[in-house]
Design goal:
The structure holds 2 protein chains of 2 kinds. By secondary structure, chain A is α/β, with parallel strands linked by helices. Chain A is 31% helix and 16% strand. Chain A is elongated, with a radius of gyration of 30 Å. In chain B, the strands form 2 sheets. A 5-stranded mixed beta sheet of chain B has the order 6-5-4-7-8. The chains are: A alpha/beta, B alpha/beta. At the A-B interface, helix 2, strand 2, helix 5 and strand 7 of A face strand 1, helix 1, strand 3 and helix 3 of B.
Amino acid sequence: MPVKVPSSRIGSSVANMKTMGKSSLGGKKNVIVHLNVVPMIDMFTILVIFLLMMFSATGQILYHQKDIQMPRAYHQKPLVRLPIIAISRNVVAFEGHKVIDTPMLTEKEFPDMKVPVLAKVLKMAHEQYKREHPQPPPSNRDAFRDWMKESTQIIIQADRGVSFEAIKLVMFTAAYQGFSTVNFSVVPYPSKNKKKKS
Amino acid sequence: MAEVDVPTKGGKKKNIIVHLNVVPFIDMMTILVMFLLMTAVWTKTGRITADQAVAQPQKQKEQKEPPKRLMILITKDNIQAKFGNQPPVHFEKSGKKYDLKGFTKWLHSLKGQLKKNQKVIVAPVDNLMYAYLVHVMDACVGEGLNNIMVADADSVAPQMM
């Protein structure tokens, strides 16, 4: 095989193209147009690899709202699907439906630490959960323990600037209705900046 | 169509052009890309669990706590932490930031004394930003303290003396 001087060369498919190849030079008219699909396949492959890396089997559990900027944390567990109370600086919503205005959540307004409007929707949610997932008999210890653990959990997706007083009232109301375990949703810090444990 | 030039035996000039049909490959890739784009999770979220809900303020009642309880009070100016009967430790704010490094170091120094499922009571004051509560809880989880209870500052403050 002869040694060629290294330089940029066009591929065989490009040489056959109507505009750049033989036919453009006034030779025999070529009816078959070759389309170079190699860059497209390359791009597709990169895109598929990138999207596969982003894939999550659990899907999107929380929908990010522009008025809720969640706090960041280094150490967290993955989220699971549970009832969600979203608290922005203006509105408290349960599963996407507005319940009450956040500025109203003060101990002055609710001295007994219970927000009746929120309690009503939480009670309905808890009852619905009980209907859909009947309580196993206490004799079945493992199933009973798992049921107790799951049925008492709730997610609080709150804005980082909300006062603890509002969070406290929501938590206490939830506890009244049987949701005694609270999961605070957070945004993980990028793994690059993760604190190294000594 | 993609073409592959295969040289014949004996090194003759004549090449056999093999046509490779890439259309099914492109079809499959397109479907895969569509599916992955639709199911992609663009922002990751996590959770920090607080096992108990808020305890009601009990200002006048004398509370009987188990002896080795770890209590953390977050005020506007500092983080106050107390373990068992030890005197409380204060981590003052520097500027707008809480001294989380010092607090984490202190938690780390307690490691030998803490029980396996040590209960931690975190009590922020009412007007504190929620983010600070999460930062303190994050520091606790980082030191392996997962049994966190969020309480009212009024119920914890008398015990910090």
